Automatic annotation (TrEMBL), chains A, B:
GO terms for biological process: negative regulation of DNA-templated transcription. It comes from the Bacteria. Keywords: Repressor, Stress response, Transcription, Transcription regulation. The gene is hrcA. Negative regulator of class I heat shock genes (grpE-dnaK-dnaJ and groELS operons). Prevents heat-shock induction of these operons. This is Heat-inducible transcription repressor HrcA. It holds the Pfam family HrcA. Residues 103-321 form the Heat-inducible transcription repressor HrcA C-terminal domain. Belongs to the HrcA family. NCBIfam families: hrcA (TIGR00331). GO terms for molecular function: DNA binding.
Length: 338, 338
DNA sequence: TCTGGCACTCGGCCCGGGTGAGTGCCAGGA
DNA sequence: TCCTGGCACTCACCCGGGCCGAGTGCCAGA
C-alpha cells in the first residue's frame, strides 16, 4: 500500500495540475505545499506513483500529470465534496424560484449548472416510467379526432393526436375519461398498462374499437416517451480547455448531440448518491478524455431523473460534485412544490 | 460599374475559396475556369475588385479572399438557389414523416438541417402570436387548483398551474371551459385578449374572482410564451472550420447559447422569402465572422416561425439556401397535415 | 530513509536561409 | 483601348541547428 505521504503527493499533484493545467514537477510541489521533505524525496515518491500507474509523464523531462487511475483514487479516497457557500446557495434558490413550467425549470437548471461548474451541463427531464399520473385528458377536436393529454406529477405534459375510425360521442368520451382517470390517477406510469387492460370490455360493443384505439395510443406514448428527453447547456465552456483541444472538442460535441448516448451515460449512474466516471471509464469513445459527474434528483426520496456535468478529466472534482449535489437538491424541492 | 468579366472573376474567387478554404491566386483561377484571358489580365481585374472592396489579401504575396461585401454581391447577383436532388428531397420527406409530436417535428428538422448543410441548424417553434387556438382545456386537479392547457393549430401545447383563492365547482369550470372555447377556438392568439375581456361579467358574483384569475393566467401565458423557444443542432459542425478557428468558435458557441440573441436574429429575417445576413451584417459581435441563412415556414401561406443555419461566411450559399428552403417547405407540409 | 549533487534528456524557442506562390508594373502587340 | 508576357519583388512557410532550462534518475553520504 502507498504510504500516507505518497497519497499526499498525489493529492498535491492533482490539485496543482487542475489549477495550472501544466505538468507539475517535484520542485514546484515542495514550494507550493508543506510536505516537509526535499524535492529529491518527492521524486522517489513520484517514481513509485508512476510505477503504480497513478501518474504519468507526457514526455521525459516534463513534470507528471495524473492518470485516470490517479483521479479515481483522488476522488475515492483523497477528496471530499466541497459544500457551496451560502451566497451560492441563495443564488441557486433565487434563480430556480422564478420558473413557470417544467421546461422552464429544466432550462434554468441547465444554465445554472453550467454557470456554477463552468462546464457542460446535462439535465434529464423527469422520467415517465418513474412518475405518477396526475391526470389524463381526452379532447374531442373533431367528430373522429381525439387529443390525448397526459400530465405527470412532475409537471411533464405529453400529447398525442388520435384518429378514430368511427365517431365517438361526447358522452362516451366523458365516460372513458372518467373511468380512465379513476383507475390511473396517482399510479405509476409503469403500472398503467395492466390497470387499463380490461377497460374496453366494460364498454358497449360500438365503442370498444375506439376505446381500444385510444388505449393503444396511450400505451404507445408511454413506451415512446420512455426514450427520455434532456437538455444541454454550457457547451461554450468546452473552449476553455487546452490549445490542443480542437482535436478533442469535436468528438465531445458530437457525443453531446447524440442524446441517446448521454441518456445511456446518465442511465448508468447510480440511482442514489453521486456517480463519477473518469476518462476511459466512459464507454463512449468520444468521451474518453472527459469525466462525467451525475446524480439523481426527484421531488421525493426517489430519483425521477438525473442531472450532471461533462468536463475534462482535469476538473475540480470536489467543487463540481458540490455544485451538482446542491443543484439536484434544490431542483427536487422545486418539483415537490409544484 | 464592374464589367461582366470582373463579376465572373468574383464568382470564380468565391467558388474556389469556398471549396479550398485557401486564398486564390490569378494563375489558379485561369486554370480552373474558362475565363478566356491570361493571369495578368485577371490580376488587373482583381486589383479593381480589391479597390472596390469586394476582395482582400490576407497578406502581400498571397491570393485573394472575398470580403463580406464580396459575398453580398455574390449572393445578390451572381448566385442562384441550388435546388436539391430528388433523392435528397425524398430523404427529407421520409425523415420528417415519422414525427409523433411537435417536439419531435422540431427535433427532426434541426437534425436534418444540420446534416444537409453540415452547419449549425436553428429552428424556432411555431410562434404563439401567429397561431390560432385549437382548444383550451381546464382541469380541476384539486378543489382550488386548476390546470390550464392551451393547444395551437400547429400542435404546440402550453400548460400552467393556477391556484384559485376559492374553490370552483366542476359545473362552473365546465361552463367556463365551454364559453371560453366557443369564443376563442379558431381565432388567432393575438386576438384572444379582447375576445375574453367581458367574460367575467357573464358569471355569477361568486365565481367572477376565480374566472378573472384564470383569464389573467391565460393572458399571461400568451405574453410569456411570446418569448419564443427554439432548438439548435449540429454544433459539432463548427469544428470543421479553420485550424485558427478555436478563437472564433468560442464566441459563436456563446452566442448560440443565448437563445434571446438567436431569436432576435431570426426575428430580423424577412417574413417571406429568404434572408441572408453576412458577417458584419449581424449585429451580435460573436457572429461577425458567420453568416445566417433564415426563412419563414408555416402550415399555410403565412409564416408561423422561422428556421435557418449559422455557418462561416465562407459557406456554399446556393447549396445552403436550397437546403434551407426545401426543409422549410416540407416542415410546413407536415404541420399542415397534423 | 532522507538529502544534496550531478549528469542527462528532450521539448520549446529563436535564428537564418531557401523556396515558391503570388503580386504589381511595364512595355509591346492586337 | 485592352490584353499579354516578362520580370523583379515580397513574404509566408518550411526546415535544420543550436541554445536553454525544467525536470528527471541515480548515487553516495548523512
Amino acid at each position: 500500500m502507498l504510504s500516507e505521504r505518497r497519497l499526499e503527493v498525489l493529492r498535491a499533484i492533482v490539485q496543482d495540475y487542475v489549477g495550472t493545467e501544466e505538468p507539475v514537477g517535484s520542485k514546484a510541489l515542495t514550494e507550493r505545499h508543506q510536505l516537509g521533505v526535499s524535492p529529491a524525496t518527492i521524486r522517489n515518491d513520484m517514481a513509485a506513483l508512476e510505477d503504480e500507474g497513478f501518474i504519468a509523464q507526457p514526455h521525459t523531462s516534463a513534470g507528471r500529470i495524473p492518470t485516470d487511475k490517479g483521479y479515481r483514487l483522488f476522488v475515492d479516497k483523497l477528496a471530499g465534496v466541497k459544500p457551496l457557500s451560502s451566497p451560492e446557495r441563495r443564488a441557486i434558490q433565487n434563480f430556480l424560484d422564478g420558473a413557470v413550467d417544467l421546461d422552464d425549470v429544466v432550462g434554468r437548471t441547465v444554465r445554472l449548472l453550467a454557470q456554477l461548474t463552468r462546464q457542460v451541463a446535462v439535465v434529464q427531464y423527469p422520467s415517465l416510467t418513474r412518475s405518477t399520473v396526475r391526470h389524463v385528458e381526452l379532447l374531442a377536436l373533431a367528430p373522429a379526432r381525439v387529443m390525448l393529454v397526459l400530465i405527470t406529477d412532475t409537471g411533464r405534459v405529453e400529447q398525442r393526436l388520435i384518429d378514430c375510425q368511427t365517431p365517438f360521442g361526447e358522452t362516451s368520451l366523458a365516460d372513458l375519461r372518467a373511468r380512465l382517470n379513476s383507475r390511473v390517477v396517482g399510479r405509476r406510469f409503469a403500472d398503467v398498462p395492466q390497470l387499463v387492460q380490461d377497460l374496453p370490455e366494460s364498454f358497449e360493443q360500438d365503442d370498444r374499437g375506439t376505446v381500444s384505439t385510444v388505449l393503444s395510443v396511450l400505451l404507445e406514448t408511454l413506451v415512446e416517451e420512455t426514450e427520455e428527453r434532456l437538455m444541454i447547456g454550457g457547451t461554450a465552456n468546452l473552449t476553455r480547455f487546452g490549445h490542443d483541444f480542437p482535436l478533442t472538442i469535436r468528438p465531445v460535441l458530437e457525443a453531446l448531440e447524440e442524446h441517446v448516448v448521454l441518456l445511456k451515460l446518465l442511465g448508468e449512474a447510480k440511482d442514489s448518491g453521486m456517480t463519477v466516471r473518469i476518462g476511459h471509464e466512459n464507454a463512449h469513445e468520444g468521451l474518453t478524455s472527459t469525466s462525467v459527474v451525475a446524480v439523481g434528483y426527484g421531488s421525493g426520496d426517489e430519483a425521477v431523473a438525473k442531472l450532471g456535468v461533462v468536463g475534462p478529466t482535469r476538473m475540480d472534482y470536489p467543487g463540481t460534485m458540490g455544485a451538482v449535489r446542491a443543484v439536484a437538491r434544490y431542483v427536487g424541492q422545486i418539483l415537490a412544490e409544484s
